[in-house]
Amino acid sequence: MLLIGLTGSIATGKSTVSALLSAPPYSLPVIDADLLAREVVEPGTAGYKAIVSYFGPSTPDLLVSPATNDNSMPENGPTGKGRPLNRPALGRRVFGDSAAAKRDRAALNAIVHPAVRRAMLGAAARAYAAGHRAAVLDVPLLFESALDRFCGTVLVVAVRDPDTQMRRLRARDPHLSANDAANRVRSQGDVRDKARRAEVRGGARGLVVWNDAGRDELAAEVRRAMEVIDAASPRWWSMVLWLCPPAAVVVGLWNFWMNVRINRQWAEAELRERAKL
Question: What gap in Å lies between CA 101 and CA 107, rounded to an integer?
Fold first, then answer.
């Protein structure tokens, strides 16, 4: 089964591309890291308890208030396992470039990422067992978390103009101040750097889906990318790998080794560029 890593940055259109890939004519299963990240910190989970333990003492509004709008919420939340996390309050702690924000973001990632990885592995195994020729791994920080090493193909949804990204984010989330929006964009890295990383992979291993225009143009970009992927990984090859699990393991290990090599070359090139500055 081909694992297609899908990434981008906030407000570049990654969710729209994910929706397009999950619908006909592609109908690919999508393993959504953001959705899994929410599930693994639901009240009562180990992730929830760890977040409350770390952030609770210094974040008085970490949990949603028992009374919201005109509805009353029990002290222990609607499930009786605890009040839900107040995500805006948590976001203010972890988004930004300050030393405190970076420290808190690292702590949050250390809690959430291992649980999300386990959930991803289970979802990928179920997709393979169901006979899907490919599955989409939708991860905002695909490169940063090194999950691209496990992907046969990486798709980066990007925009060429940073102002376009900021304008879309402010339109989508009008409650964000300009500073908050900028912090959220910076927290996910420059999407143009991610586009370059995808292109370095070469051929069908790394493709960029540019989203500088409207939805129709974006759909055309997705169609173009999928044509390249289908040509490099035809359906008959996917069937061979499904029918012969040992071959699938060998191909997976080969792809992993190739991706590690590509990432090492990228890191070395980045160090050389920085040394010139």
Answer: 10
